[in-house]
Amino acid sequence: MISPAPPAACDRASHPTRTPEERKSADELITAWALTARSGDPEAVEKFVRALQRDVRHFVGYLAADPQAADDLAQDTFLRALGSLHRFEGRSSARVWLLSIARRAVIDSYRHASARPRLADTDDWQAAAERAQERGLPGFDDGIALAELLDALPAERREAFVLTQLLGLPYAEAAEFSGCPIGTVRSRVARARAALMELLHEAERADPVGAPD
């Protein structure tokens, strides 16, 4: 059994930490909750879900074919995870393990959507941006929606950027998650940031009135 956590422990673990040490400590705590939850401990299950629900919600919101269905996808992710939690052995962090399940849920949603007529030609990223917009590049506070810019990136670069820059995953864990070398993740993030900056500058050039001084 894990030691009882302070009332605010789940909230602290569910937000990006400021240092690698804090992130590692939070991930170790969450993984401990997941391992304890395998036996059906209701308190551990609640802490595990609460600690990662924000990351899962944001992740599927940015990657899903229909971001407006992010709540359903997040719920589906946790249902799948709790159903297979008895097989989790802690070889990776619970965060990486759960985001892998979330990715499969998104892929399944793509497959399901492809079998139905589309109601629109484009995906609505605005809802996800309003729920989870975090700004790490100059100019985002000037009214340019991050989600709209992310939509223009290739899927692999978008995923790498979301994992490391928005969810705060260390590059090593993002590489483990994506099944590629850490150098590849760094390259994808660098190219994503360069592309986002270029798109931002293009938007400013197209709308000089709205560009920052």
TrEMBL record:
Residues 145-196 form the RNA polymerase sigma factor 70 region 4 type domain. The keyword Cell wall biogenesis/degradation does not apply. Residues 12-25 have a biased composition (Basic and acidic residues). It comes from the Bacteria. Keywords: Sigma factor, Transcription, Transcription regulation. Residues 48-114 form the RNA polymerase sigma-70 region domain. Residues 1-25 are annotated as: Disordered. Pfam families: Sigma70_r2, Sigma70_r4_2. Belongs to the sigma-70 factor family. ECF subfamily. PANTHER family: ECF RNA POLYMERASE SIGMA FACTOR SIGC, RNA POLYMERASE ECF-TYPE SIGMA FACTO. This is RNA polymerase sigma factor. It comes from Streptomyces griseorubens.
